[in-house]
């Protein structure tokens, strides 16, 4: 069985139970707050919540953020199967996960993401699912950066004909002409800086505004490469 699509909690390697505590907090937030948009995924989205961009753009759209540092596809799938989206009535769900599946193939990761999409669809048949592309990583060219690019390619092909699922390109502009990523864009060469978040997530913000204010967009209106 593909480990990327087999729901599993994140291993408590540090022994403090934080992952499960965060999951339980998300369960509580889901029951107590109304949200039009749910962000769910990994450290990329978790870090976004602590930026000026989140406060300026996304918080006013009535967003909740159910993202956890280091989560892989199987972890997000487990969280969804264990109630995080059961008590919400969001119009849009933004999913970003896969960059932490460092031990799996692009095909496995893509299948894991698609399994999450199908699970979301089962719970929320009419919700719009937005998939920001995986970002490049590492200061210099490396196999993980290449793998994320391959996952993006595979996922874009798979979701092209799925109704109410939209992939948004957010990974352009990070890699410079010499193949490096600047610390001005990613301090740790993984998580975007405030300025880089504004550039990367602008097409996501534009799409959310369009969905929330005008209804479902046509496929060809989505920001493209």
Verbal overview:
The radius of gyration is 16 Å and the shape is globular. With 225 residues, the protein is of the alpha/beta class. Strands 2-1-3-4-5 form a five-stranded parallel β-sheet, sandwiched between helices. Helices cover 41% and strands 11% of the residues. Helix 3 runs parallel beside helix 7, helix 4 packs parallel to helix 5 and helix 5 packs across helix 6. It has a single domain, classed as Rossmann fold, CATH 3.40.50.1110.
Mean pLDDT: 94
Number of strands: 5
Examine the coordinates and then state which fold CATH places here, giving the name of the CATH topology: Rossmann fold
CATH architecture: 3-Layer(aba) Sandwich
Shape: globular
Low-confidence stretches: 221-225
In CATH, what is the class?
Alpha Beta
| Annotated CATH homologous superfamily | SGNH hydrolase
Strand line-up across the major sheet: 2-1-3-4-5
Ends apart, CA distance between termini = 34 Å
Name the helicity range: 40-55%
Number of domains: 1
